[in-house]
Every structure is written in C-alpha cells, then in structure tokens.
Write a structure and sequence with these properties.
3-stranded mixed sheet; about 65% helix; about 5% strand; globular; mainly alpha
Length: about 260
C-alpha cells in the first residue's frame, strides 16, 4: 500500500514538474511581470530618491552585473528607506536593498556580496521559475496560461505581477535556489574584483545580531549564516581570499544614509 502511495506521489511530482517546465516563462514575459511587480513595490515601499545614493548603488550593481552570465537585460538597483536588514530581487533585474542592511555592512565587499547574491537570483531566473509553480499550487493557472499563451502583455501581466508580489512569491526561494545564488554570487563578486570573503563576514555578523532579533526580516527570506557559510566556504577557498575590500566611495555612501 505504502509503495503504491509513494509511486503515485512520485508520478504526480514528475507530472507537475513536467507541466511547469512545459509552460515556462519566456524572457519577455519575465521582464514584463518584473516591471509590474517593481512598479507595485515602489508604490508600497519608501524608495530613497537621492541621486548620489542611487548613482552609487547602480554603479556598484552594474559593475557586478558586467561579470555575470546575464548582461543582456537592464538592471535597476534601488535603496529602500527602511531600518530593517533586508534585500531582495524581482524578476527581470529589479534589485532592492534596505538602508538598514547597508548601514550594517562595514565595507564595500560585504555589500558587494549581498548584491552578488541577489544578482545571481536574476541570472539563474529563480523568480521566473517560481511563477508557474506558485500559480499551479494555488490552482490559479487560468490567468497564467492566458498570459503565457498570448502575445499581448498588457493588463493581465500587470495584474499577475502585482498579485504574485503581494503573495510573497518573489521574496523567498527554496534551499537549492539559495545555495546556487550563493555560489554564483561568490563567483560574480570575485570576478568583479571584490573579496568574496565579505559574503561570509557579513552574514556571520548578522547571525550575532539575529540573537537580538534585529535581523529577523532578512532570515525569514534567506538561509541562516551557518548554512550560507557552508555553501560557499569551499568555493571561496578556491577563488582565493583576495580582491578589494573597501573604498572611500562606500564610506561616503554610508554617511549619506545615516
């Protein structure tokens, strides 16, 4: 009996995964859904509209993107005026970092490590992969099927992007996706000239703060520092503990946020 249940579950899982793959989101649809979700995000969150702050985070982010495997799409980097320690990526290259996270970074390599991780979510299309899965799990493939099957990307895409954002679909990834983002992100950081060890020092630091509940938002959507360190420590050992650690520009940037 249990064998039959196991085989039935295995077949169902295979069927679901095959079905999701069959209706994968195209890059054009990913960009349109991401744009809609970003518009909704920037209506809901207090985005800092200081040109100097935006220019710095954009330049740092684009320097990292230039050493990634997905440079054919435009990226958008923004700082959120929130003391919570958090960062997240939306489909299509929209990346947000909270002021609280930046102020808790001691140097540029630590911030580069966070951005590298979020950029990796975009390059590996983790958000795009979650869209059909989330719709299938909620029995709501009707609208998604219309969007994927149509050439028009107007109101339906806008509604879908906002709906998925509100349901938190883009704010938390599975363990395999997070592990991959750590590994790909470390490679991006190293190739861009920053010391990838900053990834580990930053998350170790957050682990200490988490004991006081100061970084609960971050750990609700990201793996624990211990897991993250285990994921990337061997890779960083191969990459070498080398590269830029800090810059005067980063310290000026931090002062603008205090």
């Amino acid at each position: 009996m249990y064998k039959k249940i196991f085989l039935s579950s295995l077949f169902f899982s295979f069927y679901i995964n095959s079905f999701v793959l069959a209706i994968a989101v195209s890059e054009q649809q990913e960009l349109a859904i991401g744009k809609s979700a970003a518009m909704q995000t920037e209506r809901q969150l207090p985005i800092i509209n200081n040109a100097e702050i935006t220019d710095y985070i954009t330049q740092l982010g684009n320097n990292l993107v230039a050493h990634s495997t997905r440079t054919n799409i435009p990226y958008r980097f923004r700082v959120v005026d929130s003391k919570e320690i958090n960062a997240f990526a939306l489909p299509g290259g929209y990346i947000y970092v909270n002021r609280g996270l930046i102020l808790n970074a001691d140097n540029e390599s630590e911030l580069a490590g966070v951005l590298g991780h979020e950029i990796a979510h975009v390059t590996e299309r983790h958000s795009a992969e979650q869209i059909p899965k989330s719709q299938l799990s909620q029995g709501a493939l009707g609208l998604f099927g219309k969007v994927v099957g149509s050439r028009g990307l107007g109101g339906q895409v806008a509604y879908l992007g906002a709906s998925l954002l509100n349901k938190g679909v883009f704010l938390k990834f599975g363990r395999d996706a997070e592990r991959e983002a750590d590994q790909v992100g470390a490679n991006i950081v190293s190739a861009s000239g920053w010391n990838p060890q900053g990834m580990i020092t930053f998350f170790d630091k957050l682990a200490q703060k988490d004991r006081g509940g100061k970084s609960a938002a971050f750990f609700s959507s990201h793996p624990s520092p211990a897991e993250r360190e285990a994921n990337v420590s061997r890779l960083i050992a191969k990459l070498g503990n080398k590269g830029k650690i800090d810059s005067p520009e980063f310290q000026r940037f931090k002062k603008l946020l205090t």
